[in-house]
Amino acid sequence: MSALIEVASETDFTSHLASLSPSALLVLYFHTPWAAPCTQMRAVLEAIAGQYPAASPPVISFVSINAEELPDISEELDVTAVPFVVLMRGGQRLEDISGSDPVKVRTAIERHAGGAASADGAKTSIPAALSATPRENGPEVATQSPAAASNAPEPAVNAIDVSSTPALTPEQSKEALWARLEQLVKAAPVMLFMKGTPSSPQCGFSRQLVGILRERSVKYGFFNILADEDVRQGLKEYADWPTFPQLWVSGELVGGLDIVRDEIENDPSFFDQFSVNKQS
To answer: Which CATH fold would you assign to the domain 5-113?
Structure first.
């Protein structure tokens, strides 16, 4: 049976693509290890992959890609949220599925590759959906920023670092954390909770959102959620939004990169009042 293959580098990804025939269906699954909906989608795709017999060369290939560790691939395919599935054949993009709808994913794959039956003639069932409730206790060690490069980093134009807010002690209550988060989301009229800093973003989604703000000369505050695990985990529940980056405007959650892009598309003047170049 076929299997969901995790690629560890851009080189591995390029080599895998080169090994496929032009007629093979390529199922690309973009994920992050900390997002609960991705856990569900992995189980779904592993079950679907198991329905298709292994062949040489393969007629269908299931590839898993960590969207944060391989940001160049994510950006090339315009992946702005996870989980995200892209179906391709012969270098042509056939269909995208954003989110964790297992029926929609299976239907799309079967439409382009044809359904597959298991050995006993019955189709493999899709695993039950998992809860997407954000974790209360996350990993103890956050990702560290890379060592400073020899060249000076790009300055954080119009960005105000509020990451120095004192961290909570383990004895402090959830109510205290909520009060702190309420202050943080209002620390600036436009607040970006991101992975890394504007001069050294640690994920492709954060880098793209910083670029959007810079292009529009938006004055904004930012918080590096990798530097504070309490904020990183607490904000997921406080906002009822399990992924980062998160953009807040006037104390209200706008959303992630895809939502911000939609807002700008619907209202090109969305950030005008926050621009340092606004008309007086």
So the answer is: Glutaredoxin (3.40.30)
